[in-house]
Design brief:
The protein has 1 helix and 36 strands. The strands form 10 sheets. Strands 4-5-10-9-7-8 form a 6-stranded mixed sheet, with no helix packed on it. A 4-stranded antiparallel sheet has the order 11-36-35-34, with no helix packed on it. The chain has a 4-stranded antiparallel sheet with strand order 12-13-14-15, with no helix packed on it. The longest helix has 25 residues. It is elongated and about 95 Å long.
């Protein structure tokens, strides 16, 4: 028995030895060279902020980007991040996490030297770097150009470009119409309009408005179903070219257009004591008596589809209930599904809508922006065009923007001039001022101009 066991063990050891020798001879090193994944670790960025004294400063924040994978274009041999890192991000010392088939080295300089890659060594990505992946059998290699993209401008910063003034036209109302920016106002005692294409430097073409009576209210000109509308003491007027106007409704006592929406299919018009609406610009129906405190003087209009419900339109109306336009500004709102309008009670609100001379409100970046001349904000006198007042909650609270971000053109600060403001389909805000120091200002928040 012992003899048989010894022979068996000896035979097994022989087979095991032969097997091991055969396994070593059969090892084949991989001929593949490929970058499978790429990511970076934590980065430091500087963000605009305020000191305790309210002065501009920067604060440094460290952000973990390890979960953000980079795009690897295997055909072009390029590696990059589609979403650029925040403005002012420091990328000169980044740690890299990379998975490869083969082993990796990093291009050092133009003489062709390579260093082996180490995940514990930081890499300078302030310029594109070349990574070489070499197969395990050292027969093949492949190069990748790695770029870490960083925003070159502060995305939240609002930048302004100044253009020449519109000669002799006192601005009342601006809006985009038929691919152009249109400015309505008064010139030489007559109603006039100036048009300019949206792209490039403004080149204004002026003309006197034909067919509008002297009682027309051009401050509330509104676009509805492809045509322009304005009210006058004797009815409603319309135009398809902003120059030639004709009466489309004959009725006395209209004061202002107070809302319109193609999505809702209605335009709202007010007299001194009654509300009306029309669905075609010709036939007008009464919506009942004008609610107490309803603003029909110095009004700004905004209407927009709710972000969380595409079938509902919100109308916003900001202005004065008294023709003298003294006292507090009032804010009213209405959903297209509501029967009537509702007033925001702001008597105890520390951030009520500011009472500014020539107050204008526009919808921009999914918020409401208010601006105007000198006025009173929460009991404190403020200079003309000292700041925007921004509402992110549909007109309930209004606050000045913080940091370096959404600021007015500095040259407008303190200037008591007539003006009109509009937002076009390119996310550009236009502030058109008149008078001796008049100018056309075009502004945009940088990120709203980025291409997708």
């Amino acid at each position: 028995m012992k003899k048989r066991l010894a022979i068996y063990l000896a035979t097994a050891m022989l087979f095991m030895t032969v097997s091991c020798i055969e396994d070593e001879d059969d090892v084949v090193l991989s001929p593949y060279a490929m970058m499978d994944s790429f990511s970076i670790g934590s980065v430091s960025s500087e963000y605009p902020s305020f000191t305790a004294e309210g002065l501009d400063t920067f604060v440094t924040k460290t952000i973990d980007f390890s979960s953000r994978r980079f795009t690897i274009d295997q055909v072009a041999g390029e590696v990059y991040n589609v979403d650029s890192l925040p403005f002012a991000t420091k990328v000169d010392k980044l740690l890299v996490n990379m998975q490869v088939t083969g082993y990796a080295s990093i291009y050092v300089d133009s003489i062709g030297l390579y260093d082996y890659f180490s995940s514990s060594d930081s890499i300078d990505f302030s310029y594109p770097r070349k990574f070489r992946i070499t197969s395990a059998d050292s027969e093949y290699s492949r190069d990748y150009i790695v770029k870490v993209n960083v925003h070159q401008v502060e995305p939240e910063l609002m930048v302004w470009k100044k253009q020449a003034a519109i000669d002799g036209l006192c601005p009342l109302r601006a809006l985009e119409f038929d691919g152009s920016m249109c400015l309505f106002g008064e010139k030489d005692g007559k109603w006039a309009v100036a048009k300019s294409e949206l792209s490039g430097a403004p080149s204004w073409q002026q003309a006197f408005a034909e067919g509008l009576p002297s009682t027309a209210n051009l401050a509330t000109v509104q676009l509805f179903k492809g045509a322009l509308y304005a009210v006058a003491a004797d009815g409603l007027y319309t135009s398809t070219d902003a120059v030639n106007w004709s009466q489309c409704y004959n009725g006395n006592g209209l004061v202002a257009i107070v809302g319109s929406s193609d999505a809702d299919g209605k335009m709202w018009v007010a007299s001194a004591d009654e509300l009306f609406f029309t669905t075609d610009g010709v036939n007008i129906e009464s919506a009942g008596s004008l609610p107490t405190g309803f603003p029909v003087y110095g009004v700004s209009i905004a209407s927009y589809i709710l972000s969380h419900h595409s079938g509902i339109v919100r109308y916003m109306l900001v202005g004065y209930a008294d023709e003298s336009m003294d006292g507090n500004v009032v804010v009213w709102s209405k959903l297209s599904t509501d029967e009537g309008w509702a007033r925001y009670e702001n008597s105890d609100n520390p951030y009520a809508c500011p009472a500014l001379k020539g107050l204008s409100v526009v919808r921009y970046d999914d918020c409401l922006y208010a601006l105007g001349g000198a006025g009173v904000v929460n009991g404190v006198d403020v200079d003309a065009f000292s700041s925007f007042y921004i509402s992110k909650d549909n007109g309930i609270t209004w606050k000045t923007p913080a940091g370096f971000y959404q600021r007015m053109p500095a040259a407008l600060n303190g200037k008591d001039v007539p003006f009109a403001v509009a937002v076009d389909s390119n996310n550009m805000m236009w502030i058109i001022s008149g008078g001796e120091e008049g100018a056309v200002w075009e502004g945009i928040i940088n990120r709203l101009g980025f291409k997708n």
